Amino acid sequence: MQEDFIAPALSWQFKSDSYAQYHYDGQRLSIDRTNQTDLFATYSHIAINPKSDYKIEALLRQTQGGNEASYGIHWGSDYNSRSTFSFVINSTGVYKIYSSWGSRIKQFTGWRKAAEIRGKGNDHKLTIHKRQDSIYFSINDRELAQIRASRFHFQGGKIGVVLNGDIGISVDYFHVLQDKPAINQLASQPKVIKEKLPYPINTDAQELNPIVSYDGQSLYFTRNEGGEMAQEIWRSNLENGKWGNPVKLGFPLNTAGNNNVMGIGTDNSTLILSNTYSDDGLSLIGKGYSIAKWEGDKWSIPEKIEISSYMNSSNTAETSLSASGTTMIMSLKTGYNAGMNDLYRSISRTYTKSWSGPSSLKNVVNSFGNEITPFLAADGKTLYFSSEGHSGYGDQDIFMSRMLDERGFEWSEPINLGPEINTANWDGYFTIPAHGEWAYMVSANDNASQLDLYRVKLPEALKPDPVVLIKGKVLDAQTKEPLNAQIYFESLPRGRRLNKVKSKGSNGTYQIILPYGEHYGYYTHLDGYLSTHDNIDLKQKENYQEITRDIYLSPLSEGSFISLNNVYFAQGSYEILEASYPELDRLIRLMRSSETMEIEIGGHTERRGSARLNKILSQDRADAVKAYVVQAGIDEKRIKTKGYGSSKPITEGKTELERKQNRRVEYTILSL
């Protein structure tokens, strides 16, 4: 940072307000705080690694006010932290080095006399120089104090000048020197389109924290208009390819205080919110996160998400929910990190309805600076976040890292998204719908004190891996009425449950995200209905796509039948393959729960080949399914089998997909 105030490049305050009067003459920044009595600081933001050598230097002059007022360098604190370090002088010829934490003051030196301080109207060069294990403090090139570096526990990257009391000063330059690694970015920077969203999405207020639904149809964001309702949640819907007029959401999502949407469920029926709410939903009561669900025609009162060993001493609590709903990436200050926010991972505990204790993403992702605004993309492994500690172009840049193992312990070295996305000011809150084409973010691009929403067309190298959006309706097979059913997705052949979603009772719709790389089986559960099973093979990676799969459930009654779509046999054989076991095990559980139920297992083949051999094969396959069920303890008298061969096709069999649908095993309920 080489700020000489000739063409200021960083986020220094120049706008006068009730706290201070500013004047900039093209060479010096002047700050007038005469007739004031309190402490005041103005600053830019640059993250200094406290473990490496650094040098901070400023040329300052007192121009107005009393001799007892002090001024100097302020450094090593965070936007949200009440702690800071200060090296100050006054015109009586004394200096002091101290830190503050709220109202608590820690003095590294008391007021000490220094002949180098020449009084009001003279320039004074203040220098803070860390070399190895010590920090040296100089006035006009003379070292006056040496303090162990371990006594300075940095809280962030705020850095600037501090004024105490009735005083006016001018600043000639402000320099920060520290060797940093080169920016890790794409070797060839692709062309990026970055557009500020128009009014009425962006206004004169600050717009923050955009969250786009996975289907790309809804945009939630926070607008900060000040006052008691400081930050409130708004939503805009996509209309003919453009964002419509946003609507401020009411109770219970917005309350007195700061309200933010942190994550959206894939079915758009679940919201993760910052903070925790009172039982009546009228107020915010603490840090952490809450969950609200769409119930009928309104959002439920948010309920606290229970996270084991949750700890956060930061004023902010940001998180991102994975598309599977099983992982959260959180930005926390826990006491175990370097003093600023780091990123942690928490896993859903299915059986206790709670979340595991936060586990650090470690030093590949986390740095000495703040890591904030995490977003885990729809693929479940591409993470975007904002950091001041990794080398970048401004005080907070956006980076991308990819999970390298299934357990989330290993991550790739973060990549800076580049100078066409990141600015010299603050950048964060990166969010991407499932299609991965356009990302949404926050930048202070036009004015360092004004945060607005932007959208960015991503190059391929910065996109997450493609996924598939599965959507459809769950309907009664007889009445076609919508049903509120649970749909489970599992990996085949082993049947490990991966995800679940519930259809809406109002219209039967469901929606879920599935990554490529798996052969998925899915089944539907609703009391009083037969469970429907099917599968979708996504092992071969392709581009993003949306697939519609409507599901029809038959009431549990005599004569009802269901296809065992996830039962597989070796080619031309009745040998049951391993991928069939999860499906057959569910049939076993159904027969155990209905102890008097009797069924017929029917085998079917396609039309090609010998009709006689097809009938024999279909009978053998039906008998093989019966044998599997009987060996689990089900009375064989409750199960009949019949091989229908190709006599009952359900499609014309013209394509391979249609022929595959004809090759099936079904069971029919004979009696209950």
Question: Distance between termini?
Answer: 79 Å
The counted number of beta strands is: 49
Rg from Cα = 32 Å
Mean of the pLDDT scores?
90
Strand content of the residues, in percent? Answer: 35-45%
**Alpha plus pi helix count:** 4
Overall shape: it is elongated
Helix content: under 10%
**Poorly predicted ranges:** none
Q: What's the story with the biggest beta sheet?
A: 8 strands, antiparallel
Structural class of the secondary structure composition?
mainly beta
Keywords: Membrane
Pfam family, one: OmpA
InterPro entries: Bact_OuterMem_StrucFunc (IPR050330), OmpA-like (IPR006665), OmpA-like_sf (IPR036737), WD40 (IPR011659)
Protein name: OmpA family protein
What does this structure look like?
The mean pLDDT is 90. The protein is 7% helix and 45% strand. The protein is mostly beta strands. The termini are far apart. The strands form 10 sheets. Strands 1, 2, 3, 5, 10, 11, 12 and 14 form an 8-stranded antiparallel β-sheet that branches. The protein has a 6-stranded antiparallel β-sheet with strand order 4-13-6-7-8-9, with no helix packed on it. Strands 16, 17, 18, 19 and 20 form a 5-stranded antiparallel β-sheet that branches. The chain has 4 helices and 49 strands. A hairpin with a 2-residue loop joins strand 10 (123-131) and strand 11 (134-139).
